[in-house]
Amino acid sequence: MQQDFKRIPINLHNQVIACLRKNLAQANQLLNMQFTEPKIIYKPKGSVAGSAFLMRWEIQLNSIMLADNGQVFIEEVVPHELAHLIVFKKFGNVKPHGKEWQYVMSNILGKMPKTTHNFDVKRDFYLYYCECQEHQLTKIRHNKVQHNNINYLCRKCGTQLKQKMLS
After folding, report:
1. Burial 96-122 (b: 16+ CB within 10 A, else e)
2. Which of 76, 86, 84, 85 is nearest to 27 (CA)?
3. Which of 99, 102, 89, 92 is nearest to 38 (CA)?
4. Which among 48, 42, 117, 33 is positioned nearest to 76, based on CA atoms?
């Protein structure tokens, strides 16, 4: 199994693998199947905690959220994404958080079938101002202003937002 160790400490990666293997063994035993270990990839992706790539048999985890939340993140997100893979192999192409996924989460992996996370999402903001207030623009909007000559207007006063230069 090839692994991507970018941006995360080895001890966190080892905890991810331990959680994955524990849940995988449990699923294999209870479902009387032999699911192989999926590839784990780490990427710092916005507000998405994890993703399951069904055809590639791969789990992608948000490296920033993992580093910030450690074991709590691992125990919630790894089984969640693994359940998507298991459901795909066992039941085929079904609703992502449907009854099959809920069954695997609760009855096979013994986890609460939560569809969303509550982890803090850190974002970089750029300060802009108008005639009436200050605004925080995301990196994406800031880049659009800088590179694409897109202008944003204040919803209150209608004036164009200008970047606040920090001194």
Report:
1. ebeebbbbbbeebbebebeeebebeee
2. 86
3. 89
4. 117
Alpha-carbon span 105 to 84, nearest angstrom: 9
Query: What is the per-residue pLDDT across 89-121, written as a single tens digit (0 to 9) for each?
Result: 999 999 999 999 999 999 999 999 988 888 877
**List 37, 58, 81, 100, catalytic entry:** 81
Give the pTM.
0.72
CA atoms within a 13 Å half-sphere pointing along the CA-CB vector of 45: 10
**81 noted as active-site residue:** yes
Dist CA 88 CA 86 (whole Å) = 5
The token duo for 136 is 């925080």
Q: What tokens were used for 143? A: 């880049």
